[in-house]
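Q: Predict the bound structure with NDP.
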Amino acid sequence: MTPADERFEILMRLVGLIERDLESLALAESVDNGKTVAIAKRLDIPRAASNFRFYATAAMHTFDESHETTGQAINYTLRHPLGVVGCISPWNLPLYLFTWKIAPAIAAGCTVVAKPSEVTPMTAYLFSKLCIEAGLPAGVLNIVHGTGPKVGSAIVSHKDVKAISFTGGTKTGESIARVAAPMFKKLSLELGGKNPNIIFADCNYDEMLAETRRAAFANQGEICLCGSRIFVERPIYEQFKRDFVEQVSTLKVGDPLEADTDVGAIVSKQHFDKIMSYIELARAEGGTILTGGEQVHLDGRCSDGWFVEPTIIEGLSYDCRTNQEEIFGPVATIMPFDTEDEVLAYANSVRYGLSSTIWTENLSRAHRMAAKIETGIVWINCWLLRDLRTPFGGMKNSGVGREGGFEALKFFTEEKNVCVKL
Ligand code: NDP
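A: Predicted complex:
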């Protein structure tokens, strides 16, 4: 196995190369996915570099535990890389999530078979060239292209692949678990979300308003962490509704390559149809569209693209399908509430449990709510503020296991306890 300091050197070279190619990678991501080039430049590509920086340095700081059984024995833990592991990632944050898996796997000393989504394969291809330039030894990282049912399932069912790190839809996660669990593979599943954003009347209103808009509509709402169910304490409900609708209706849907575009294209016709079908469902369930709700047609370069107006819906019950199922698009619902217990019941009513946001200046309430809410990630007075050392992942049908920090390095290793009698 390549020693840790050499792994560190190679992974740090990759950081430099990703940063060198920031512009071209961001452009490729935008063209491939439909996201704005601005968000690709600000979020996706810098985060891919951070993933490698974080795990390159982490590889230099691993340690093994030792446990003394007083007077009788000393135990020490050996932690060895698993061998060949599989990494499968989705189309919404292509290079960002692809590298979030690959970086810890290589840092831990594994070799990797990795598959990006066939919907957005471009940056994974460009990245493979950077790996060669960085001097990553041949065979350490094997990027394979092809669809999930064909290439993805071949990785999952291969007997020599010891672990699967997967990010994607809950249904796909289920089918992967069905194949991998009886083979006793290690599994890390990061799945869907239907995240609550809970706003109390005592919040810092202006900050909340700006972040709530970002949380609902960033990346066209195609982020698993987006806050798509917005619960507002009744005393400020009408004011919030007025201000939120006004702010959201100023968002510019446009060519993803133009600097002033806020909302780019939906990734595919298939996904566009899914989003529009949920807007129809919301109408059928008795919802009122406060803004948006329609397709946007653009001229010129984007005339064949699939664009959706940022959409806010009110008047739906917390337990209708629109409020229970993941839409994964620029669609948010708003609902009033009166008490903490009531909003907790609404928030926890879904089968998902990925992330939540709580807006309040009342510290005791913030801690109370954080302890009771059923999500793996709780943001208080912020959204998507990430520290890569923290455990990342969901409860319930949002997944199994945690990524981030040393958790991910441990995932890609096998532990062995050695007991030496004194
Ligand atoms: P999918 O589950 O459809 O696909 C994810 C990946 O799995 C793709 O690479 C896909 O390949 C592959 N795949 C599909 N079927 C199989 C299979 N049978 N065996 C192995 N691999 C397979 O998800 P989407 O790409 O549609 O991504 C959106 C979903 O991802 C949303 O539900 C979102 O919430 C979730 N997500 C979760 C995150 C989290 O951290 N919890 C973060 C980001 C997204 P291909 O596309 O080439 O067919």
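A: DSSP finds 14 helices and 20 strands in the chain.
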